[in-house]
Amino acid sequence: MGRVREYAPAALVLVTGLLLWEAVVFAFSIEFYLLPAPHVIVHSLRETYPVLVEAGLYTFTEAVLGYALGCGGGILAAMAASRSPAFAGVVLPYAVASASVPIIALAPLAIVWFGVEQGSKIAIVVLMTFFPTFVSTLRGLLSVTPQSLELMRSYAASEQQIFLKLRLPHSLPMMFPALRACATLAMIGAVVSEFFGGPVKSLGVYIKSTASLFQTRQAWSAILVACALGLLFYFAVALVERLAMPWHFERRED
Amino acid sequence: MGSPIIELASVDKTFESRAGATEALRAISLAVDAGEFVSVIGPSGCGKSSLLRIVGDLVEPSAGAVRVKGKSARQARLDRDYGIVFQTPVLYDWRTVLENVRLPLELAGRPRVEREERPPALLRLVGLEEFGGHYPWQLSGGMQQRVSIARALALNPSILLMDEPFGALDEMTRERLNQELLQVCAETAASVLFVTHSIAEAVFLSTRIVVMSPRPGHIDRVVTVDLPHPRVDKTRAHPRFFELVTEVRQSLREDPGLAAGHTRPGESG
Fold this sequence. Notes:
The complex is a heterodimer of chains A (254) and B (269). Chain A has helices spanning 2-27, 38-82, 85-97, 107-114, 118-142, 146-154, 159-195, 203-212, 216-244, 246-253. By secondary structure, chain A is mostly helical. Chain A has a single domain (49-253), classed as MetI-like fold, CATH 1.10.3720. With 269 residues, chain B is an alpha/beta fold. Helix content of chain B is 34%, strand content 25%. Chain B contains eight helices and ten strands. In chain B, strand 7, helix 6 (171-188) and strand 8 form a beta-alpha-beta unit. In chain B, helix 3 packs parallel to helix 5. Chain B is globular and about 50 Å long. The two termini of chain B are 30 Å apart. The chains are: A mainly alpha (254), B alpha/beta (269). The A-B interface holds A 145, 147-148, 150-157, 161, 165-166, 169-170, 172, 245, 247-248, 250-251, 254 and B 56, 58, 77-80, 82, 84, 86, 88, 90, 92-96, 103-104, 106-108, 135, 137-138, 155.
């Protein structure tokens, strides 16, 4: 019952939005090549889904691989940097500044370096996800309170014990929001990178080519697939977050 | 009594900072015998917390000698000879109450049987056996501090170092925990070095009270508490209790730095 009540408003907004969309397209007689009504998109989705599934998997693979490498690398780099707070202090400002760099602008160059296939897209996703994960994880690892460190010291804990039993669990509530945000970033990075060139069997290229031919309903159904995959990715990470930090979520639900 | 379990000889401590050097402690000499409960009382900034941290090897003295169980303070820390209770409970959010109490046993690499059996027994000792599966935030401040006492007892230390453990609690909770602490100490036979700024608490708990003055922190006098054991609620109504409270208060008053009156609560010395 609680779950239903929690999600009901969101579901209502979705349904209302879709109905409004239908109504607006119908009321103003908008041409479908400009803005197809939802039922037209769904219809198109049913016709073209074998192509879309293939393209979706192709793009999703790039996003997931890039994410795994980028976030994994970010976490490992943060662990290494946390061993020397002085070093961390030097690199942190640059890592933070990298958030304002439009990494996607490197996509055309990535194609030059890594080829037009998946490699270049994965490279972009790695770059996009590495820094946010690095920054949040490093901050989490370094933000333990002096008292909790003093407690460890009073028990003559080794550096390894301090890391595993204090720094790492302490950093999780800071690390996971970044990991969630990066799941979204990874999908965006993969699709947008494909706009700059890639095989036909990818979502980005499919969207771009159908849109330029005014095959708007096909473009929309591909966008829908991209959205669904992005959401799936996001919620998968959110699920892992819940399992990794039961203490954190019991608290919020209380 | 034998040789003292904690011994400080002419200990000085000066903190260096950008603003210059601050002399926190000067010529501290003190001996605590096994089984004693010694309170250190004084206004904020008298260095009483630094004194406790020097004994625990969390801060190094600038001069002087510290012996704990006949060893250097460092060796005593490495041997895990003491359990420490801070002003805040310092419990780890991600561990249940039981797992928090288990932490020292894990750090010391104690055998599995001990890691399984000791924490529930310790929680029983502090009256929290039903709360083992709770997370710290689900407990009141007083209960959290009891968990931190249970944790401090995990390795059965011969010394308990307590830094204003009840300073942030309300008066009633504090009095109840004072009582419980004495029972726990009687059962574990630990010697206690206890920092506080509550006169009544110091008199109720201690065998001796070390009265300190600030700038630089030094020992003004040591008051021996000759109240009968066991200390119970009625002890607080004992005429001798009031005499001792008055005596300690006057010792504190004699210090010109404290003429303004009470210390601010929640501030460590």
